[in-house]
Hints:
Blueprint: E1 4-10, E2 16-20, E3 23-27, H1 31-41, E4 49-53, E5 56-61, H2 64-67, E6 70-75, E7 78-83
Parallel strand pairs: 1-4
Antiparallel strand pairs: 1-2, 2-3, 4-5, 6-7
Amino acid sequence: xxxxxxxxxxxxxxxxxxxxxxxxxxxxxxxxxxxxxxxxxxxxxxxxxxxxxxxxxxxxxxxxxxxxxxxxxxxxxxxxxxxxxxxxxxxxx
Length: 93
């Protein structure tokens, strides 16, 4: 089984960026989750995901599709994963 390896980086303004091949997503809360949602929307198959900075893997998720259902929040300096819910106005004109 293949593994998706997301390259993680951070811009000077503090925005996290997750990249896989030509796909890239930025977010202050869960760039890796946002990239996973984009990949699921494109129809990519479910398989494990590694988050890496350079060659060093920092986290592994067993499922791209499960990662797509999450986001991260931070309170008191501690990040935590929680269920992602689309913004109520997303997709409305």
